[in-house]
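User: ok so my PI wants both of these folded by tonight, can you help

Assistant: No problem, let's get them done. Here's the first:
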Amino acid sequence: MSTMTMRIDDIDAEIIRKYAQFEGKTISDFIRDAVFEKIEDQEDLATLRAAIAADDGKRYSHEQVLTELGL
């Protein structure tokens, strides 16, 4: 298992400690979760941008979708 070091000021460190405790997590778990959430957010944003770029502008009403699905 690897160890990573992060330098932050004392005020920020205390905020992180308290928030991790509030969430019932260790500091390591809290920071790991936060990092991976950030990565996921960036991946979601990239997916959204690709979808917007590929959008042909055609839209379907709720009724059209239900009819198409035979519902």
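One down. Here's the second:
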Amino acid sequence: MVEIKVDASKIKGEANAVSQLVAFLKEKTAGDVTNDGGKMTLKTTAEGVNKKYVRVLLKKFLHHQELKETYRVIGGEEDTLAISERKIYEED
């Protein structure tokens, strides 16, 4: 059994983004996704689901929701991923 934690609390301000992400991960991984205020836990026994695959899915979700320019996926501790805001540099 694989257990991966995803911290998506930064995208709470976007309209229904967290609930859509939960549905997206359930559909793509055929696993159990629990949501606790933006901090999700994905549990699955499916073959081929690992941290790298979930990272690709998160990037794909951000692209489909047109949030790719504002947010990015970063790796955390073991079996933990987080969605954080991109630093935007303004040119003078």
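Strands lie at 2-7, 32-36, 39-44, 71-75, 80-85. The chain has two helices and five strands. Good luck tonight!
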